[in-house]
Amino acid sequence: MNNSFSMVPLEDLLTKSEEWTDINPHERYREVTVRLWGKGVAQRREVSGAEIAASRRLVARAGQFILSRIDARNGAFGPDSLDGAVVSNDFPVFTPNLSRMLPSFLSWMSKTRSFVDICKAASEGTTNRVRLQEGRFLATQIPLPSLPEQRRIVARIEELAAKIEEACNLRRTAAQNAETIWNSILSATFRPRILGSTGEGESARNLLEKQADAYALATAAKHNNAYPGRPNFYSDGLYELP
Fold it and tell me: Helix (H) and strand (E) counts for the chain?
């Protein structure tokens, strides 16, 4: 990111949400999962309150930003779109300061290696107990463009992302078409169409009889024992079936 941008601590851009709710065992709740490597937030499951092993949970709102204390160093964070879902305290929820930063800008910025490095630097602990330290995370300064510049950057990224997605779709379509064509070529090669027949919905006897008619006036090729004009029919099969 451009070094000419102002350096701003994350605590000026993100406010930790403290919206808690008491879990009612007779109500149903959506739980989320925060996927690794910037793949975002998705619904994990929908359960009754009786299945949640806690009396209280944090409430996540659409547009907020969720981090995994354990896996933030592995890119487990992202904007939330599941309004009203509940999360445990291991998933702190932050509300972006809309007067300073666009949610879409935060979303794209969080996918960068530099943001993952921020989370790594803010995590500490022994093996299997490494946790993100919120104070250290929020104290980290990042270069922040103005809102108009953020809009320009987001628009450019989304334009390029759309082109990449279009190219990927075209590539998938081309691969599917190539597979279909290849199957047709193999079918035509190993199952050649009988002269005067579509080859569809006909019995083997009918196909052989049509082949015999087509080759009735042809000279028999005796050198390889090929006699297409005189096919053999085995009504009971070549061998006894079990």
Answer: 5, 13
d(CA 36, CA 12): 26
Nearest to residue 41, comparing CAs of 49, 51, 30?
A: 30
Distance from CA of residue 218 to its chain's centroid?
59
With residues binned 3-state (H G I as helix, E B as strand, rest as coil), the percentages for the chain, rounded to 5, are 35, 20, 40
Q: Judge contact between 83 and 66, C-beta under 8 A.
A: no
For the stretch 56-73, pLDDT in tens is: 999 998 888 888 888 888
Q: Please give the distance of CA 108 from its chain centroid, rounded to a whole number.
A: 17
**Two tokens at 233?**
């029919």
Q: How far apart are CA 143 and CA 4, in angstroms?
A: 8
Given the DSSP bridges, would you call strands 56-60 and 85-87 parallel, antiparallel or unpaired? antiparallel
Q: State the Rg of the chain over Cα.
A: 33
In this structure, which amino acid lies at residue 101? M
pLDDT digits 0-9 by tens, 119-165: 889 888 776 678 888 899 999 999 999 999 999 999 998 898 888 88
